[in-house]
Structure formats: structure tokens, C-alpha cells
TrEMBL record:
Alphabetical list of PROSITE patterns matching this protein: ABC_TRANSPORTER_2 (PS50893)
Region (Disordered): 310-333
Compositional bias of kind Basic and acidic residues: 319-333
GO molecular function, one term: ATP binding
Residue ranges annotated for the ABC transporter domain, each copy included: 21-243
Name of one Pfam family that matches: ABC_tran
Alphabetical list of CDD domains matching this protein: ABC_DR_subfamily_A
Organism: Natronoglomus mannanivorans
Protein name per Swiss-Prot or TrEMBL: ABC transporter ATP-binding protein
Keyword annotations from UniProtKB, A to Z: ATP-binding, Nucleotide-binding
PANTHER family found in the cross-reference section: ABC TRANSPORTER, ATP-BINDING PROTEIN
Cited InterPro entries: AAA+_ATPase (IPR003593), ABC_transporter-like_ATP-bd (IPR003439), P-loop_NTPase (IPR027417)
Record keyword tRNA processing present: no
Length: 333
């Protein structure tokens, strides 16, 4: 029997891959308060995702649920194509801020303890501790550590595991700018090796290394997208120097001070002239102009200004490829 050769229409189309981590409609509360109120989140394999939002919005609670340290009240969480967080523990490494270190042990003893209990622990902690400038303090009791030293020890413990997925809670908290850059370089190196990384943060600096950012507000994910796409989608940013404009002239009635300037977002119903007329232009050195958005502007918009969509998070797409250098070009803004 002779059959016709297959056409393009006959070819089997590849099925889209499932995310490495998927949380759907996750809710969690304590007492009478609800922390997570139906949060959705996906993390793709090999992706570095930064989960952003101010303190108290549920980022750490979500990470505890993803790590299997606590159970959500409702909703579903799956890792590695169908595993529960508890089932996936051997393939994940978790840093939960303030919950890993035994203060009665030295830094070295803490590292040895976690190295003994994780099935995929490695000896990489020595080089990681060196990079984080922690080696000289490893024989001190952890109770003597500063907050920044604790973060470095927690991060060393987490990264010294050959995991497929890293869940890192505020890894740059209480670190100085030079050490933040060291941490960023480490995370980009791991991501370059194909590792999947979820970082929680309330620091705009941590947006620059992300392949994708997800913003949390009101216990839900309110927006996701690549950093460049999220920046391009922002309303125009207005910068005022030399005077204090009225809040009513800006979107959401919110002003943000950075150094000697006031920043805010231009309302669709108001032009730049509206703000110019609201300040005392006759005063010397008063300027009103538009300014390219920074990651701080991005954080402020999705944390304090943007409306929350009742239908779920907005997704901002960006098909452009970016190098690591392009990801970090806005770090100082």
C-alpha cells in the first residue's frame, strides 16, 4: 500500500513543557489573618525568578509552603512534574531567612551539620564561604554573627548543595553593595549552569539579575514579566527638583523621594504641563521633566500604585534576548 508522505499539517506538534514549579490559588493564614489570598506562581526550568514585594506581603510564607516546611490552607503546589514539596526535598535546596542556623554551633559546625543531612550536599561550601568573605569567621559561634554574616552563612549552606532548584529567602538582606554584587555573580553562575532559582526580595537591586520578576501584593501575584518588558510598560516617570508638587498631580496620588528629587508616575488624565503648573516654576532651580524608569520606580509602581486586577496577575511579555551584562545595567539606578 502506497501512502502519501506526511505534510507539515500531519507532523506531531511538540507539547509545551510544564513549569518546574507551579503554585495555583495558594492560600495561607495564621489565626484570623490571611497572608496568602489565592497566589499563583510558575517558575520555568533553568529560570532565575525574583519574587518581589515589601515586607509582610507573604513572600517568606510562600517560600515555606514551596519548601514543604508548612502546608497551605488551600490550593496546589507541584514541583518536577507532579511532586509535592515534601517529595521534592532531595532535589531542592532552601534558604529560609532566620530559620537555618543553630546559634550554639560555630559557622563551620552548622555547615557540617547540613552537609551531613542533605543527600546532595557537596564540598563547595569552602569556595562559597571564601567568595562571601566568611571563612575567617567560621570558627566563631553563630550567635556572635551580625545579620549580614548570618545571611552569608545561610546562603553558603543552601548553595553548597547540588540541587535542581534553589529557593532563597532574601539572600541579599543586610549585605553591603559590594557583597550584593558577589551574591548576584554567584546566582548568575548557578543559573548559567542550568539551575533553577527562586529569590524573594524587597530590594530593587535584586531585580536586575532576574530572567523574570513576579510582584506580590495583597497576598497575590499582581504582575509578572521580564524586567525590560515591565520597565517599558510603566507609566511615564516624572522627576521634580527644587519644589514639592502636590500628590494629586500624580498617578495614584503617590510621591517618592530619591535624594534631592521627587518622583512619581504621570496620570493618563494629566500632562506634564499639569505638574509644571502645580509647582513654583519661578523659583530658581525648579525643574520638571520625564526620566527613564529605574528598578526602584518599578518596585514602587507595583508595590504602591498599580491597581490589583481581580481577574489575576498581568503578564508582560518580552521576546528579546538579553545578556547578563544587559540584565545588570540598571543595578545602580
Amino acid at each position: 500500500m502506497i501512502t502519501d508522505p506526511p505534510t507539515d499539517d500531519d507532523e506531531v506538534q511538540p507539547q509545551p513543557s510544564r513549569p518546574l514549579l507551579e503554585a495555583r490559588n495558594v492560600e495561607k493564614g495564621f489565626g484570623d489573618g490571611r497572608i496568602l489570598t489565592g497566589l499563583d506562581l510558575t517558575v520555568e526550568e533553568g529560570e532565575l525568578l525574583t519574587l518581589m514585594g515589601p515586607n509582610g506581603v507573604g513572600k517568606s510564607v510562600l517560600l515555606s509552603c514551596l519548601a514543604g516546611s508548612t502546608d497551605p490552607d488551600s490550593g496546589s503546589i507541584e514541583l518536577f512534574d507532579g511532586q509535592s514539596p515534601t517529595e521534592a526535598r532531595s532535589a531542592t535546596s532552601v534558604m529560609l531567612q532566620g530559620q537555618s542556623i543553630d546559634p550554639d554551633l560555630t559557622g563551620r559546625e552548622n555547615l557540617q551539620f547540613y552537609g551531613d543531612i542533605h543527600p546532595r550536599a557537596t564540598g563547595d561550601w569552602r569556595s562559597i564561604a571564601d567568595q562571601l568573605e566568611l571563612t575567617d569567621d567560621l570558627d566563631r559561634p553563630a550567635r556572635e554573627y551580625s545579620g549580614g554574616m548570618e545571611r552569608k552563612l545561610e546562603l553558603t549552606i543552601a548553595l553548597a548543595v547540588d540541587a535542581d532548584c534553589y529557593l532563597l529567602d532574601e539572600p541579599t538582606a543586610e549585605l553591603d553593595l559590594s557583597m550584593i554584587q558577589v551574591v548576584h555573580d554567584l546566582l548568575l553562575e548557578y543559573r548559567g549552569d542550568g539551575k533553577t532559582i527562586l529569590v524573594t526580595s524587597h530590594a530593587p537591586l535584586d531585580a536586575g539579575i532576574a530572567d523574570r520578576i513576579a510582584f506580590v501584593r495583597g497576598g497575590r501575584t499582581v504582575a509578572t514579566g521580564e524586567p525590560s518588558a515591565l520597565l517599558e510598560a510603566l507609566p511615564p516617570v516624572v522627576r521634580v527638583r527644587g519644589d514639592m508638587p502636590p500628590e494629586s498631580a500624580f498617578l495614584g496620588g503617590r510621591l517618592f523621594q530619591r535624594g534631592d528629587e521627587i518622583r512619581g508616575f504621570l496620570s493618563p488624565s494629566a500632562g506634564l504641563e499639569t505638574i509644571e503648573n502645580a509647582v513654583e516654576r519661578e523659583r530658581e532651580h525648579v525643574t520638571v521633566d520625564r526620566d527613564p524608569p529605574s528598578y526602584t520606580d518599578l518596585f514602587n509602581y507595583y508595590t504602591y500604585v498599580s491597581p490589583i486586577d481581580a481577574d489575576g496577575p498581568s503578564t508582560v511579555a518580552d521576546e528579546s534576548d538579553r545578556s547578563d551584562g544587559e540584565r545588570t545595567e540598571r543595578l545602580e539606578q
